[in-house]
Amino acid sequence: MAPTQLPESGNPLLMSRHTADSNSHTGEPLGRITFELFKDVVPKTAENFRQFCTGESKDAGGRPQGYKGSKFHRIIPNFMCQGGDFLKGDGAGSTCIWGYKSFDDENFNLKHEQPGLLSMANAGPNTNGSQFFITTVPTPFLDGKHVVFGKVVDGMEVVKKMEATKTGYRGKDVPNMDVTIAQCGEM
């Protein structure tokens, strides 16, 4: 595989390695995804995600917090894969790097016009935190409601493997096997 080139925009590149396993002990490697964060368009949102990927973010007790070891808790085929709840693991937990539960929508300049976009999961206007999703198809109905802040530049086949994970045994849209971010960081 050829090395991933840094974007001319100067935007940061982050990577994550994913595993899938029914018991979380011997995760089968799914592969690596490389994301470009759109720091030039949504700098605050991109920085929030970047710090959770690198482990730079600290909780109130000064302990590192972030995506490493967290699971994708919601997968809907022909729509998206959602993760980022490293607090509770079920979609109920969220925080941001500024010590609050959430932060405001930065802007809606970027549209959900292709697969492989990184977008903020939220519970309504101005409720962005640590949760995010990766689109697997164009999702224009999310425009103006969810902030797009990055895209997959390498590893869309890994996203497709994640999307193909069976769901429903543990609950609607909940993967039957743990899909875990085994490793993540900045390139």
TrEMBL record:
GO cellular component: cytoplasm
Pfam families membership: Pro_isomerase (PF00160)
EC number: 5.2.1.8
Keyword Zinc: no
Protein task: PPIases accelerate the folding of proteins. It catalyzes the cis-trans isomerization of proline imidic peptide bonds in oligopeptides.
Protein name: Peptidyl-prolyl cis-trans isomerase
Alphabetical UniProt keywords: Isomerase, Rotamase
Organism expressing this protein natively: Trichoderma harzianum (Hypocrea lixii)
An annotated Gene Ontology molecular function: peptidyl-prolyl cis-trans isomerase activity
PROSITE patterns: CSA_PPIASE_1 (PS00170), CSA_PPIASE_2 (PS50072)
InterPro entries, alphabetized: Cyclophilin-like_dom_sf, Cyclophilin-type_PPIase, Cyclophilin-type_PPIase_CS, Cyclophilin-type_PPIase_dom
